[in-house]
Amino acid sequence: MRLTVAVPADQAERAVAEACALAGTGCRERPAGEGAVALDLWLAPAAADPDALRAGLRAAGIEAEVAAAPETGAWREAMRAFHRPVEIGGVLRVRPPWAPVRPPLHDVVIDPGMAFGTAQHATTRTCLELLAEVAPGGGSALDAGCGSGVLAIAARRLGLDPVWAVDADPLAVEATLANARRNGVGLRVARRTIGADALPAADVLLANLTATALATLAAHLPVPGPRLAILSGLRPDEAGAAAAAFAPAGLRTREAREAEGWATALMERAP
Question: pTM of the entire structure?
Answer without folding.
Answer: 0.79
